[in-house]
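Reopening: structure tokens for the inosinic acid complex, inputs below.
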Amino acid sequence: MTLCFATNNRHKVEEVQAALGDAIRLITLAEAGITEELPENQDTLEGNAREKALYVFERYGQACFADDTGLEVDALGGAPGVYSARYAGPARRAEDNMALLLKNLEGKFRDAQFRTVIWLVTPNGEWGFEGVVRGRILAEQRGQGGFGYDPIFLPEGADKTLAEMSMDEKNRISHRGKAIRKLVDFLRSQ
Ligand code: IMP
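Re-run output (same inputs, fresh job):
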């Protein structure tokens, strides 16, 4: 079986492929012959992941899964959530997003979580998988690794931010790592 991961990031695909073994061959969007930007017009992570995966399945007849991730801050009612990438505007700059978040959090409770939703669509049905890591937003950045909000996110029980962790350390505890392991367990059980 060939399964499309709705991304063009080969590295992401290889990581999941390594966990999956050989029974299923994973391909990127480009490898599936899909070059247009996928729609992402929903206001929930579930909605966006499902919209992308269904688009590929319905237009191209290709079994597919897609992911969507957001940082959900308790004191902001779950914002920036589905708008995490463009919180400070369409330029999608991580530095601007972090600065705006820190400003909006002044004097507020700093508990938060990263949440990833993966949606899988095949001829046999649809399934959703979720991964969450709880933590807290620091007042200042720490660390050079990772991306997005990593330098200001301290996971629960950790003494390093996500940006101070190696990629392996982050994958072991992260929202995305957890959601991917659920997807892989499901696919391997089929
Ligand atoms: P995406 O759905 O993976 O494209 O993630 C949307 C946005 O959420 C990204 O542009 C980042 O701002 C943020 N984000 C997602 N995953 C992470 C992460 O692992 N660390 C920090 N920020 C993240």
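The pocket of inosinic acid is lined by residues 68-71, 84-85, 97, 114, 146-150, 162, 174, 176 (CB under 6 Å). The chain is about 30% helix and 25% strand. Marking as resolved unless the reporter disagrees.
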